Amino acid sequence: MRPTPPRQAVILAGGRGTRLQPLTLTRPKPMVVFHGKPFLEYIVEMLRDQGIERILMLLGYLPGVITDHFGDGSRLGVSIEYDITDPDDLTAHRVLHAADRIDETFLLLYCDNYWPMRLDDMWARFVASGADGQVTVYANEDRFSKDSVIVGPDGFVDVFDRTRTTPGLKGIEISYAILRKSAVLPLLPTDRQELFEQAVYPALARAHRLGAYWSGHRYYSVGNLDRLPVTDEFLARRPAILLDRDGVLNARAPRAEYVRRAQDLRPLPGAAQAVGRLTRAGYRVIVVSNQAGIGRGVMTEADLAAVNDRLRAEVAQAGGRIDAIYHCPHDWDAGCACRKPAPGMLFQAQRDWHLDLTRTLFVGDDPRDAEAARAAGCPFQMVGPGRSLADIVDRALGAPLQETGT
């Protein structure tokens, strides 16, 4: 029988949240409100949408604030249960206390991190690895926080260091862990003052039993007051769309040639008008484009800037706005992380604009665009003969792209 992804999530949500005071004087930290609902509700909704059916919340501090809000979970389409221990107990004890209520294979989350997970993809990696546990690791290219792991070339965690002092650390463990209970429970101490991740992850790493699911998509946190502004912007969920340039907005040059001069740009029929409709509907429009002509020496950054300025002007005449243009200047075989089908430009746009890529459509005209979208977790649509950007905006996406007049 083919193994199926976990259907239970266990959320560690018992701490006092002292770094969020005074906000946490009257509520646990995951109950801080963004845009009309608590942070934890966004997590629950994402879990539900990813196929999680049952959630076990491990509580301690002010548990009634959480239980009163969520109840049995039926309002949100899931089943929610609670296990309550002392507010000063640490997370290893919370898991041990609830062990009889935890499935053999389960998903473990910290209550203060939101990361747009793709459970099916995570599960495929976990099954293929044969590991006893798998943690999600943020690549941390932007130095968002201090690194905490070393991941080997085989995709297994070689070092987990919660103190973040070991030389050579690269990547941040952010939970969203798939775990086998039978491998975890023997590692949990009876000491109430031990952290789960400190008790379990170094031991699994030493045994070469802890896989890593690597992601360039930033996570968003309520771990301290400094993180709240960007988390607020992320959870505002302003709509955005990612577009390839050549072949989507303007005609492609012949293979191995490039649009090198502004006067050579030929906007595709209806493309500028489609961007105008997106802009008026409140969408951010972001372009991501391979431009190997720079790396090959047949055009310059200044040439590209002039072409892009012409494109922006054409779009502006139609009432639209291109909010950002990202390009990879490297040659075809440079091995960089930004040239599509690599997802580097999409992740850069995500970090700069606080996008949720799982909710952000990418429109391209090439299989490499589709591969980049898949690697980044974006929904994707392809333009081609008989199907233009205007067609996608008008018909395929339907209601989400209808103009609102704002």
UniProtKB/TrEMBL annotation:
Name the SUPFAM superfamilies for this protein: HAD-like, Nucleotide-diphospho-sugar transferases
Localization in the cell = Cytoplasm
Q: Where is the Nucleotidyl transferase domain?
A: 9-142
> Origin, by domain of life?
Bacteria
Q: Which UniProt keywords apply?
A: Carbohydrate metabolism, Cytoplasm, Hydrolase, Metal-binding
Q: Which residues cross the membrane?
A: none
As one GO molecular function, the record gives:
metal ion binding
Any one of the GO BP annotations? carbohydrate metabolic process
Could you state one GO cellular component term attached to this entry?
cytoplasm
One Pfam family assigned to this protein is NTP_transferase
Family (UniProt)? Belongs to the GmhB family.
- This protein is called D,D-heptose 1,7-bisphosphate phosphatase
